[in-house]
Recover the amino acids of this structure.
């Protein structure tokens, strides 16, 4: 058994246990394998172990991997900061974008999405901890941005994403995830019809699952240290 296969099995089991502890079905939580900085060969190995959804942060690296792995039916998610001048290749090559935090970026993604492709699934990145070093829309500005993005013709607004400030224990970890869930629920009371909370990484995904995460973004626990 390879390390990646073993790590994937352990991660899936841990996700199932966290879901059970939260009285949720593990089918409600999707694993996104974050393959940034790892080679195409590692992605191929993870695919052989049953993983099909992969997250990338760096556009040029991602495009090279997407090209190298064209023979596989993979679903690519862009999860890194988005520069306005790089929206076209993101719109053309990815099925999901988790890191939309400005209307200008959303408008460009919509305009540049090839018409033969289905709408681009997007999440709004929320700077839930208010860190100056991180991207994301402020929590109080989420509703206005969501309403604008939902109107764009070639995007499908699916939900929210966050990367909270690190915390040392699960009780502290759960607080920003609970705030994210509250924003998510508020949007749905306004008729947004969202279904995705992308939150939780290798160090805090059990806490995220307890607060309603539907996608957890895990890299180190699968592929090893970068």
């Amino acid at each position: 058994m390879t390390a990646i296969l073993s790590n994937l099995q352990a991660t899936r089991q841990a996700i199932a246990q966290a879901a059970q502890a939260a009285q949720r079905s593990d089918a409600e939580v999707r694993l996104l394998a974050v393959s940034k900085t790892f080679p195409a060969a590692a992605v191929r190995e993870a695919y052989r172990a049953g993983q099909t959804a992969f997250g990338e942060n760096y556009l040029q690296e991602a495009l090279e991997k997407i090209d190298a792995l064209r023979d596989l039916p993979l679903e690519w998610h862009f999860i890194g900061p988005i520069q306005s001048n790089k929206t076209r290749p993101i719109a053309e090559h990815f099925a999901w974008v988790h890191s939309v935090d400005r209307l200008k970026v959303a408008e460009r993604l919509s305009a540049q999405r090839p018409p033969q492709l289905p709408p681009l699934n997007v999440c709004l990145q929320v700077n839930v901890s208010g860190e100056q070093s991180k991207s994301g829309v402020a929590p109080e500005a989420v509703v206005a941005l969501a309403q604008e993005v939902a109107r764009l013709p070639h995007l499908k607004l699916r939900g929210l994403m966050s990367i909270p400030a690190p915390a040392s224990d699960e009780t502290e970890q759960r607080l920003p995830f609970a705030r994210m869930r509250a924003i998510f629920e508020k949007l749905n009371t306004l008729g947004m019809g969202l279904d995705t909370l992308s939150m939780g990484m290798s160090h805090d995904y059990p806490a995220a699952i307890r607060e309603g995460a539907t996608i957890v973004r895990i890299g180190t626990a699968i592929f090893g240290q970068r």
Residues 3-223 form a domain with the TIM Barrel fold (CATH 3.20.20.10). Residues 40 and 65 are 5 Å apart (CA to CA).
